[in-house]
Amino acid sequence: MNNFEFFNPVKIIFGKDQLAKLAVQIPANKKVLMIYGGGSIFKNGVHTAIKDALKNFDVVEFSGIEPNPRYETAMKAVELIKAEKIDFLLAVGGGSVIDATKFIAAAVLFNGNDPWEILSKRKPVKAAIPFGAVLTLPATGSEMNSGGVITREATHEKFAFSSPLTFPVFSFLLPDAASSLPKRQVANGVVDAFMHTMEQYMTYPANAPLQDRFAESILQTLVEEGPKAYANPADYEAMSNLMWSATMALNGLIGCGVPQDWAVHMMGHELTAKFGIDHARTLAIIAPSHYKYSFENKKEKLAQFGERVWGITSGTLDEKAHTAIEKMEAFFQSLGVDTKLSKYTEEYKGTAQDISKRFTDRGWEKLGERQSLKPSDVEKIVEMSY
Q1: CA torsion angle for 40, 81, 100, 342 (degrees, to 10)?
Q2: Residue 298 forms part of a structural domain
Q3: What CATH number is attached to the domain comprising 22?
Q4: E strand spans, 141-260
Q5: With contact defined as beta carbons under 8 Å apart, do 172 and 133 qualify?
Q6: Contacts of residue 181, Cβ cutoff 8 Å, sequence gap at least 6
Q7: How many CB atoms lie within 10 A of CB 112?
Q8: 82 domain-assigned
Q9: Helices marked H in the chain — which ranges?
Q10: Measuring CA to CA, which residue among 255, 277, 36, 21 is closest to residue 146?
């Protein structure tokens, strides 16, 4: 096992009828900006419950955060915060809203030319407005980590950032609020959580059996409970297990002491930026090809994945590994998630070369857990994903 540091200060409040506790989580006399996306929080009663809970607070609202949150929209919220002298933020919705809120919290206090530099130039976050989260959609794990991903529509770029200052102070996890989600969003949540786990697990053996089993337990739970939540989002028990699995997949715990990949995400982000494809679906497009292309480096863990998650007991190590990839791809497809780029757009030709060039231009010359993937490899992986 590798050396590591682990820090996670987020307070989690999980379950039904919990929003009555919201007011005591926010310091008195704070002016709150409630940030959300579309209208789902009005349909599921969350908006009313929050307004009731914060009746003694001055609450301003900002709506319109996109599923792939945009820099341009976030900066409108920054302007509102400065005009209204807001001093506490409350993200209400899914991971995209929470990601946007993290960036907004940092951008308001950014001391530089352009807050975009937090993303494009990895400028450090030195201050951020405190914020909490109310999670209504399981997927990204953003409710219990310090990272976010933002898209700049004008340049078709999508970048990630992270800072110890952008952890939520608290997060309410509300499985019952997800009961009316469209099946497409539930499927995205399952795939997103699955791939967050895989990015930290599907590398090479590092003598970290506890971390492996943490990851495998999340994957097993997603395989068992994900289809139930997909079939019936109102199944509270299944949705609870899906939501907690998604949180645990990316709160830092399973990545302690082990090598991590994240090449799938880096390629997937480019597909979202270029075509607007749902984040989880870009991961489902790239992952099978990435694992096939990187087979020799990953086959020991792929075989272990096959044995422990899919119950594959027969065949050679290579055969188990190949079958494991097939099982994963079939699982995604069973949730209505296509795994080829051509299923999402007819304009895919040239995408691999475009992404490879972007990586080269940015100096992204070493990707993956062994830092062995170059832009030329990325080009081949993306082409395999057509």
Answers
A1: 80
A2: yes
A3: 3.40.50.1970
A4: 147-152, 157-162, 170-173
A5: yes
A6: 40, 137, 233
A7: 12
A8: yes
A9: 40-43, 46-53, 71-84, 95-107, 117-120, 183-201, 209-231, 236-249, 263-275, 279-293, 295-310, 317-334, 351-362, 375-384
A10: 255
Distance CA(110)–CA(363), nearest Å, equals 25
**Which tens digits make up the pLDDT trace of 235-267?**
999 999 999 999 999 999 999 999 999 999 999
Residue 31: helix, strand or coil by DSSP?
strand
User: Which residues span the domain enclosing 292?
Assistant: 182-384
Helices and strands (H and E) in the chain: how many: 14, 8
Q: Of 123, 126, 121, 128, nearest to 101 (Cα)? A: 128
The 10s digit of each residue's pLDDT in 285-339 is: 999 999 999 999 999 999 999 999 999 999 999 999 999 999 999 999 999 999 9
Tokens, residue 245: 């699995």
Q: Which amino acid is at 280?
A: A
Tokens of 99: 């990601």
Look up tokens 């895919």; give the residue.
348
DSSP designation for 255: T
Residue 169 amino acid letter: V
Could you give the 3-state DSSP secondary structure of residue 323?
helix
Which of 52, 162, 144, 27 lies closest to 91 in space, CA to CA? 144
User: Residue 120, Cβ neighbours under 10 Å: how many?
Assistant: 17
